[in-house]
Design brief:
CATH topology: Nucleoside Triphosphate Pyrophosphohydrolase
Helix content: 25-40%
Shape: globular
CATH architecture: Alpha-Beta Complex
Number of helices: 8
Structural class: alpha+beta
Largest sheet: 7 strands, mixed
Number of strands: 10
CATH class: Alpha Beta
Radius of gyration: 17 Å
Number of domains: 1
Distance between the termini: 39 Å
CATH superfamily: Nucleoside Triphosphate Pyrophosphohydrolase
Order of helices and strands: EEEEHHEHHEHHEEEEHH
């Protein structure tokens, strides 16, 4: 039942991760656990809500190379734009294992450091921001490109104002984690994902489908 007064949307960030295979793009999709209250059983891109830790200056002050034009687009709805970037990096790592942390020169973590952080994922109680700062790392805003924004309709009892980013998976990294929120994950060509949606195999919401169409036109 729709609320009498629309719920205020909470800020959230989603990352459309892409890779090139056979001369075309593939995207990384996850199927949310059917037990989830919001979009349970739906195929989505990695992402989640912006937490207070994401908007803390300790985090936003460590963003490298954010595009000023993208920041202007994210400001248009009255939200603090930098928190979307830090949340995108954090949520992407938590839900896919892709890590867009970098050094001060903007070079993405690689090799031993990347493998070590992947190995600690889910076992380390330290907040993501603290982990990044402790290792002298920064948030790679230079690897995130604004794609679209979407606000959950007013009739929904749970609402989010979500910024979608596009990012290529860094060389040497892998996508896929074991997570209670993720029932399945896969790489798939956008047109194939849309066909699975049309056949009823993949449940998706309109902004997910819109993002797939955008990737097809890259």
């Amino acid at each position: 039942m729709a609320p009498d007064t629309p719920v205020t949307p909470r800020p959230a960030a989603t990352v459309v991760v892409v890779r090139r295979r056979g001369g075309r793009h593939e995207v990384f999709l996850t199927k949310r656990a059917r037990s989830m209250a919001f979009l349970g059983g739906y195929y989505v891109f990695p992402g989640g809500r912006v937490d207070t830790s994401d908007t803390n200056p300790r985090a936003t002050g460590r963003i490298i190379g954010a595009d000023p034009d993208d920041l202007d687009k994210m400001k248009q709805d009255g939200y603090e734009p930098l928190g979307f970037i830090t949340a995108a990096v954090r949520e992407l790592f938590e839900e896919s294992g892709v890590l867009l942390l970098c050094d001060e020169a903007g070079r993405i973590v690689s090799g031993r450091l990347y493998r070590e952080m992947r190995g600690l994922a889910g076992q380390n109680d330290a907040p993501f921001v603290d982990e990044a700062i402790g290792r002298g790392l920064f948030f790679a805003g230079n690897r995130l490109r604004f794609l679209q924004r979407f606000t959950t309709p007013a009739f929904s009892p749970m609402r989010f104002h979500t910024v979608f980013f596009l990012a290529e998976i860094p060389e040497g990294q892998e996508a896929g984690v074991e997570n209670v929120e993720v029932e399945r994950s896969l790489w798939i060509a956008p047109d194939e994902a849309l066909e699975q949606n049309r056949s009823g195999e993949f449940k998706m919401i309109p902004p997910t489908m819109a993002a797939l169409h955008m990737v097809m036109n890259l």
